[in-house]
Amino acid sequence: MKTILKSIKKSLKEISPFENIRVLGSNPKGDILAGITVAIIALPLALAFGEISKLGPIAGIWGAIAGGIFGGFFGGCMVGVSGPTAPKAAQIAAFMSFFIIGTSSNPDLVAAFSIIFISGLILVIISILRISRFIHYTPYPVIAGFMCGIGVIVILTQLNAFVGLGVENSIMGTIKNFQHTLNNYNREALFVSLPSILVLFFWDKVGEQVNILKNIPAPLFALVLGTAISQILQLDIPYIGDKMSGADSDKIFTFYLPDFSRFQEFIMPAVALAGLAILDSLLSCKVADNLTGLRHSSDRETFGQGMANMGAGIFGGVTTATATMRTVANIKFGGKTPLASIVHGVTLLAILLGLSSLVALIPTACLAAILFKVGIEIMDYRILPILKKIPKLDMAIFFIVLFITVFEDLMVAIAVGGILAVIGSFNHIRGAISKHNSYKIIPFKKSDIQIDQTISESLNSSSTYVIQPIGTIFFGTIEPLLENYSKQPNHETLIIDMQYVKHADLTGAFAIEDLCKVCKMKDIKAFIVNEKGPIQNLLSDLNISKAFRPEMQTKHL
After folding, report:
1. Residue 262 region, left (φ>0) first, then alpha (ψ -120 to 50), else beta?
2. Cα separation, 15 vs 156, whole angstroms
3. The CATH number of the domain covering residues in 434-556
4. Contact 71/65 with Cβ under 8 angstroms?
5. Which residues contact 447 (CB under 8 A, 6 or more apart)?
6. DSSP string of 120-133?
């Protein structure tokens, strides 16, 4: 009992928001400006994800508000910005086909927001139990297949809205009625969707030519342009206001108390939402870590998402997670503390209160164009160009997860992919358990490793570290190595010595590459040396080892 109480005490200390509060005032100007900018970027995305979730565009904004404020205050990633995401919106939309009012097609909103609230409660419990960190052991092909599957779902589900028709309730329905969609499209909708999608694809090039437009987010401009065209031409197409029943304050401020009398009915969808929230959030946090050189707290981030989803459930918002696009934008525009996320949420609240009547005028075809672009961007372009070169097992897992994600269930896809990865890596797992797989992180000594003498002599031994993985680098062993390395003292050079590595899977190879990229960002010279046999072939096929060979960086020494 004492051990349990001690563990709970440690967990409560870990998830405490004290660290977030402590740094709130350390970068006020940068955080406020970044928060406002990210809110402008988030607005069209929140509306679009609210639409795809089947809970309504206003629910998308409330999800972003709850995610920004609660996620910022309690989250474990200093630069993370939370809100509705494509995977989470797609998942709640799939659940809503089972929770409708009577014989109508209208979603049961009480059921939806109860599920979202309960998923937040589950996340809080998971954070206290300190088990969210195990998401780091998800194999890369599973993640890649999942993200590509989500991209396909988003694109297909928005096809009808893009051409001015009613949205299909399922992927199979979209595919089955594809010919009908082509034959019955609304021509007027294309006056909005086509210019919007062109803006989204070519905005960067326009910004290069016209400096004043460079800092205007493409989704925002597409939203304004599409709305302006529809109003000037008075187009007879679907609008957001059609789903709002007016933009009055009673509609905006609708609160939902969770219906615990239907707990057994809600628990499994809530568990699935919680699982995806952890995956979605912690993947975004890892992206942020790579960009900033910092390391997030997985348990505190899970707690923050729990609070955000509980808030979203009460205020009628779409389920939330840490959002990669908004987090990257926050970093880009100077956000350094949770204040940026909180300002983002408050700004969206102000927009909702002051501009709701204008929001109602936005055509759904414009949101469909934005989601089209999101669907394309969310796909994993790290793995797609090299599919033919990756190990056969990784390729099989990728396609199986992709197929199940699109045609079955998001969490089932992740579970199946993870099981297949474990089975395929059984020998590596057995080796890890028997300590055949391990690693060393040691100060550099010329006698320890084989390295070009010219390079060796130019290194400062006192500020050079060596990582020596031993055995196999795979999804089950890479995270402890990375975590241990992050605790090492400051140094100028990192040498990754591969002479004792016999095998690596895709997760391990990409993790090594990411480590080298983080080092480069922090002005630490990173070298990969002594690759042999299969590991040499894999790193070469993935175009990893070439960029970090010593001879490629001699000029920097």
Report:
1. alpha
2. 39
3. 3.30.750.24
4. no
5. none
6. HHHHHHHHHHT-GG
**Considering only CA atoms, which of 446, 447, 524, 448 is closest in space to residue 485?**
524
Closest CA to 243 of 53, 44, 43: 53
Q: Which residue has the tokens 């990411």?
A: 514
HEC letters along 164-185: CCCCCCCHHHHHHCHHHHHHCC
Question: Per residue in 229-272, pLDDT tens?
Answer: 999 999 888 887 776 543 344 456 788 999 999 999 999 999 98
Q: Quote the CA–CA distance of 101 and 410 in Å, as a whole number.
A: 24
Find all residues with CB under 8 Å of 148, minimum gap 6, and list them. Answer: 379, 380, 384, 398, 402, 405
Judged by DSSP in three states, 442 sits in: strand
Nearest-angstrom CA–CA distance, 297 and 276:
18
Highest mean pLDDT, choosing among 36-50, 73-87, 355-369? 73-87
Number of Cβ within a 10 Å radius of residue 189: 25
What does the domain layout of the chain look like in residue ranges? Answer: 2-414, 434-556
What is the distance between the alpha carbons of residues 478 and 512, in angstroms, rounded to a whole number? 9
Half-sphere exposure for 447 (CA within 13 Å, toward CB): 0
Contacts of 528 by beta carbon, 8 Å cutoff, 6+ apart: 496, 498, 512, 516, 539, 544, 545, 548, 549
Phi-psi label, residue 10: left if phi above 0, alpha if psi -120 to 50, beta otherwise: alpha
pLDDT in tens, 58-92: 899 999 999 999 999 999 899 999 999 988 888 89
The radius of gyration of the chain from alpha carbons, rounded to an integer in Å, stands at 24
What's the CA gap between 231 and 117, in Å, rounded?
38
Q: Residue 537: which of 498, 496, 511, 495 has the closest Cα? A: 498
For residue 507, which amino acid is it? T
Q: Residue 55 and residue 88: Cα distance in Å, rounded?
A: 12
Could you report the per-residue pLDDT of 98-122, keeping only the tens digit for each?
887 766 677 889 999 999 999 999 9
Identify the sign of the CA torsion 66, 67, 72, 76.
Answer: positive
Q: Tell me if 282 sits within 8 A of 135, measured CB to CB.
A: yes
* Cα 44 from Cα 224, distance rounded (Å): 10
Asked whether 334 and 34 are in contact (CB, 8 A), the reply is yes
Among 444, 442, 441, 443, smallest CA distance to 458 is for 444
Give pLDDT, residue 78. Answer: 92
Q: Supply the angle between the helices 218-233 and 187-209 in degrees, to the nearest 10.
A: 140
Q: What are phi and psi of 229, to 5 degrees?
A: -60, -45
Average pLDDT score, the chain: 82
